[in-house]
Amino acid sequence: MNNFQIIRELLKFDDPDKFYFIQILKRRKDNPTMGKDMCNIDNFCVYSMEDYERYEKRIIDVCERNNARAYIRLNRRSDKKIALQMLARMAQMIASEQYNIRKLYYSIAGEFHSEEDKTFIIDIDIKPFNDFDKIEKLINGLQPTGDKLIATIPTVNGFHMITRPFNLAEFRKYMQLQGDTPDIHKDNPTLLYYSETKENPLI
């Protein structure tokens, strides 16, 4: 499943401090013999469309060789914010006599975004799904009112609705009355590429 072209249309590069964060994850649900739930294979920081296009082949190759998935966070990260968070986190770690900081940068990049024009993800894990128009109409009527659906990204078991922020409490209240409560994420990644190869022993 290749969503590079769909996601390409959603990207903007108007601030040199900000970047899109891509992770390649190998998961036990795709590789049942793995000893742990998930393994982070690689990470990419995308500052420009040139970066995005240049990394595409490499990302696909890594996913195929490792039977892994690539995910992208559409809420951009900030070099400045990550640097400040790293400074604070390193001080805490050193005070606790923890000196292995090799994975700290990517850990913080996964935790903190710096996006004024932020997005939500409605995670629909149903195929086929017949209430798409109903959900779109619902979120458009929630505060702040107006068109909120940005894109629909196919996933392995359904799709992600990428939206502008809306009143989550009202959405959940309505969906519970309908007997359905899809997950809504304020800063989760969406699927960029999924390898559908058989289990591969490479890590």
Provide a concise account of the structure shown.
The chain is α+β, with helices and mostly antiparallel strands. The protein folds into two domains: 4-115 and 190-194, no CATH class; 120-185.
- Spatial order of strands in the largest sheet: 2-1-3-8
Report the uncertain regions.
none
Q: Helix amount, in percent?
A: 25-40%
The tally of structural domains comes to 2
> Would you tell me the overall average pLDDT?
90
Query: How many helices in DSSP terms?
Result: 6
Largest sheet: 4 strands, antiparallel
Shape: globular
Rg computed from alpha carbons, rounded to a whole number of angstroms: 18 Å
Q: What is the tally of beta strands?
A: 8
| Beta fraction | 25-35%
Look at the helices and sheets and give the structural class: alpha+beta
N-to-C SSE string, H for helix and E for strand: HEEHEHHEHEEHEE
Amino-to-carboxy terminus distance? 20 Å
Quaternary state reads single chain
If you had to describe this structure to a student in words, what would you say it looks like?
- About 35% of the residues lie in helices and about 25% in strands.
- With about 200 residues, it is α+β, with helices and mostly antiparallel strands.
- It folds into 2 domains: about 5-115 and about 190-195, no CATH class; about 120-185.
- It has a 4-stranded antiparallel beta sheet with strand order 2-1-3-8, sandwiched between helices. It has a 4-stranded antiparallel beta sheet with strand order 5-6-4-7.
- Helix 3 packs across helix 4 (about 105-110).
- The radius of gyration is 18 Å and the shape is globular.
- The model has no long low-confidence stretch (mean pLDDT about 90).
